[in-house]
């Protein structure tokens, strides 16, 4: 996720008690030493797997001015790089000036970072220029990177010496337990590959919080958390990390109580001054799903007690933006995100997400024994559904339309909110291709909701076929981890104005790690 | 100095005993905390003293994408930079990517480092690009820089925040004692300014060895050491540092015993595989001058004992390259440097430098009580002078010519070697301008020898006028320290193919700190 708003003099509401509980749940990071599995010279443009040699070949690849090597660490890593550098030839008489480029996907090396002019900061591009005064040197870079490939280019030596890389090592970090999960993998080889990519994605995004992506934005987003938590329950089952994130979001909010779209943990925990309507409404969803999951191990009354009020507050804040016609104006509270698809009209989706979130708020009320609240919510939900039906349902066309647009996302969310009857819903997806042409989907995040909408109508085979096609095409495009944004027909699509800042390990895209074991245990 | 040769599989002769003595003399570095004295925005091209504000203005100069500030530390510094960085606006949602450029002279900021294509490594350009993940941050750069000015440019933030510089500090280092030397300064204001610049230059080049320049090459060169030692005797009088350097040069040499043109001290002491004929011959010169200076405080028999053989060996190695015609072929042992003046024929100079060095070797022999050696050397010297007279003296033209060229440098060295009679020598400098036109001088290093040649003929007034004009023009060009290379008519001249790698604090240029007090105590 990457989206921003700017509020002057924003001072978040801080709840120190909640933040202390979150702090106590700060996970220990597991460290794994990872060495390159293959290397190649990269002086030209193209780096291809066929050119790769065993890493033992590395020290002999002596590098002169302008020359490059590429190191392949075998799989996506989130971690710290250390290089053992040396020289060949005469004693160095000038510093070595090197450029280090980190890539999650080889495509990143084909892009010129200097040409990027998008709206997301170019500072996310993982590229460092370093001077080394004394050789041999052990160069331990202080920043964390997300990468499988490292390209080292010698910007300058002197004619007296060549740079030699004696060794390279990644100290990979994750708060995911390194339990071997392969026994849970689907048997079908194609699905197994998809599942593997998804699990690796989640693993590399699980740090001291669930990060959206370890390359960018490296932080906790509410809507992303919802999908990460689901995948986590079926894989690493680090329930405390979900709890920690819920306490963080609860502990630092907008002054009016809204849960922020994302938050920072460094140098101290602080809500971003960005609110997203749909993201805010996922707070009760994640809380309810966490408690349901936790219940399998024994109830967690404290968390319900601590966070119930905040979860219900999100619904109330949204309900306050419902006008007399029963339609919510989500954009008064923050951006309605839904998906990066250009031109998507989001009014219908906003209404549907609120109805959807109330389902979870009701369950929370029931769990809390708050019958009155449950009844009120059910009533409000019914009115919202009625209004949605009235405003967005096209009787003649038998589908939903928002602002005159029959986007696939609108159908998906209305189905998930059960604004359509089961029969209507099922028929809608007969025409998925038609809605997709009108306004399609850009992110695996949205594709997840499409798949769950298909599943909610019992279109299981189609749901599996979609996973196989969509995530499978990502795998075929060389994914080791799930891409943040993916349009199979347009592999370089980016919502940011340049794919060089795209994240190729983004946990909102990893939900087949949840969908496959839960819905297709037989696959 | 910067010049190189490459010898495959070069293994220097190491004398551990000498290197241990050198190591014991490794000086303590003095640290001085230096704060900026003024600051200005530097978004456009020009930074001029008139635009500078008090440093208190710095934190208010909030920097967006592409914006710059310039900090002036008041004088040339050799040291380490620490910045206190912060932000204004919303919590940073992306790293700050900054570029730091260090300049000894403002001219460096007008040069585009990316365009430099010279033969000296561009890695000497003092420019760093750094990502800062968390703000506020205390950024302590690990490398040492030579600078008065710092330019910080924000390559990228995000629209959510501006970068703020709360403070900046230089931890300046030098092995020169911070004694106030101003009482020794000439009274004449112009000369005082020249003297001040020279003393600062020496101060900032005195580190764990006498470095040629703290920007480039940051190491000990033999010919540079000769002039640094002279200036040191009249200023900081760190005699142990000269002794240390003599032991270093003695302790790591060419396998045949030649003193290397320069040496490295990191990661361990090691001679460079570059020999320069004239530089090698300065070893007995520096040793003799050190002992003479040391004698004022009490004799240093150990150093004479330890290094005498090495000093005499340099002469013998050179004499072995004298052919039957009595002319030395210096280039068989290494480059003959003399000066960077393009097209200079160096045959005559090489002959003269050998004759000149023998003077010092004779004095060493006398000091050692080695009468036989002294006698042999005097005899050899006489033959060399005869041959020089025969081959290089143009009776008709009453000047010296080398390869058909009557360069000023050739006249200077022949006069210093006393190949001309005092009367001839004196008349030669009546025509200095003529020889200068034929082939002039490019470095203050060569200008020093020109001045001493004038002084050797008693042309004292002219010598002072030359100091006033040549070093004075450097001061007028904004020098805080002496430039490595300086042609007043061509301020951007560089022997390296681009002035961006020029050093603007080069100790071989600081000899007015010696010439003025010794030759013009009345000035």
Can you describe what's shown?
By secondary structure, chain A is α+β, with helices and mostly antiparallel strands. The first copy, chain A, has a domain at 31-112 and 123-174: Galactose-binding domain-like (Jelly Rolls, Sandwich), CATH 2.60.120.260. In chain A, 37% of the residues lie in helices and 17% in strands. The first copy, chain A, contains 14 helices and 15 strands. In chain A, strands 2, 3, 4, 5, 6, 7, 8 and 9 form an eight-stranded antiparallel beta sheet that branches. A three-stranded antiparallel beta sheet of chain A has the order 10-12-13. A two-stranded antiparallel sheet of chain A has the order 1-11. In chain A, a hairpin with a 4-residue loop joins strand 14 and strand 15. In chain A, helix 4 (239-251) runs antiparallel to helix 5 (277-295), helix 9 (408-416) packs across helix 12 and helix 12 (444-456) packs antiparallel against helix 13. The longest helix of chain A is centred in the C-terminal third of the chain and has 22 residues, at 347-368. The radius of gyration of chain A is 24 Å and the shape is globular. The mean pLDDT of chain A is 96. At the A-B interface, strand 6 of A face strand 6 of B.
